[in-house]
Specification:
By secondary structure, this protein is α+β, with helices and mostly antiparallel strands. The protein is globular, with a radius of gyration of 30 Å.
Amino acid sequence: MKKRYPKYLSLAMGIMLSLLLCMHVRAQESPNENKSVVFLLDVSGSMQSNDPERLAVDSIAQLIYSLPTNYKVGLTVYSTEAAVLQKEADNGHRSDIMDLAGKIEYQGYSNAGAGLLSAVETLTETSAGEKYIVMLSDGEILMKEDALTQESEQLCRDAIAYAEEQGIIIHVIGLGEDMEDEANLIYDAAALTGGRSCHASQASGLQSAVDLILAEMGVKQSTVAIVDADGGTERVVVELPYLQADKIRVLLTSSAPIHNLNTAFQAENARQVNGAGYSLLEIERPSDGHLEISFEGTAGSQVRINAIPEYSVLPKVEIVYEDRLSGEMDNPCYERTAKLLYTFCSKEKQSISLWEGEYFDSSKIILWINGEAEELTLSKGALEMQESVTASGAYEVAFDYSAFPANVIGEESITVKLEEPPVIDVEEPEQVKFPIGIAAATLLLLIAAAVLIFYLRRPKSAPAPVEERPQPSKYPYVGKMNLYITRTSSGYDIEPLSYNLFRLPAGKVISLQEILEECEVKESFPGAKHIFFKPGTGRSVIMTNNSDCTIMKSREILMKNKSYQLNVDAKVDISFEDEVSELTLQYKVLKPSEMWQ
């Protein structure tokens, strides 16, 4: 239960109003910026005891400085009343938001309903394609009077419904003992909008919660060093593999102040931002990956150094045709194969080719063609595929970089235009009588042409088969698989089963056969060992079917040697290769209480 602080009410309102008056920067709209995030912070009086070192402010810094450039960020706070301190601002104004956050004081009651409604209304004014709210609270809704508390609770429910209607995803970070209760109304904001709920018992655990939220939003970051500070000068040397990146953000976070940050690197430009418990180095287009960092940390504290790479990308396609003669002698034609080579260059400097280094080899990029996913492997900066061409046409290819080890901004689709094979013109011969010698020579030529056509029509050797098991992904599992075995070859009934994917290592690929064996199922399911699962982006699971089983999803037959994305509550029916055994599986997301059972 939150404590009451009525004597601080007027002071809290005065501080909020002064903050609103001192900050009025509004970022200009840009067609390239299509995502918005509002950080909603509980600044009520109880936060003084739950966050005495003001680590919530550092969590704001970690969040906004980790987001790629195409995210606009805003800040809303609430105690007795709600205040929008900053509407969505672009990358150049993020330090201004942190200046505002540093002036916040924890005072007053907890009017979460008004705060959430303000954040939702702010996002409805934007045209962003993706909209998020990250809400941090340390307790239940509580006002001076019961009637006001009930009014705020109703506002909270209305705001959640409004967010759900507008497609706004709300992530909730609960802080302290009061937020251990999963039935807390504030957690409904995440459950009903498809967001993530995290709980930190102490403020020192906020960093892990923010990491989970960033991963849920698809932000790619890597920890390059963790330093236990002794109060002296610390030196760190790293080799970053993100050559020609538009930006690399190097973020240092700590539970204690960081002083005298110095760096050495080669790049076109850079800027540095320092806060109480964090420092940011934003590097533009580094020419090499060598980075040297020195700083003074507070003795006994731990400093984490994260790298957040960002590429602004323009995809290109090069098409090479291969034609071979085919058909009957009296009606020859060309069979055409198109070899498509997809490459990627910097959107700002199109002469710069990207991802040609060894670090990016074997990275996965998904191409969506006519509604079907085709997962290709990057090699020396290019994706390669082939297809037969019978007629001229054009189609759109969309790129999904969710499995790529860096944040990618830019064109997400490209038009592929294919040309039909050339036509062979056959002239009708004149009806003339040939001398015997000419007839014999003509016959020899026809025989030679037939031999040539025979050799041209010989089938080429098939390429060596690729490894059946898919490559691991870069995401963690967040859910479970419910299995309903409806028919077996022996005729025995098997009770419904549940397999906890959350306990698997991040990115691991597992077959359906392995899941059944882990569930101690003794029956045989032919083809199950050729059906694979791995974690995908946005809490999804990627299913790859390399079997001859009949697999149905939403009345659609899933093709062999194809990968499909299973979102939350997706249901799949499988008839196995023996044409007897049948199974239904459903992918579900775990509740927080189920994760460690």
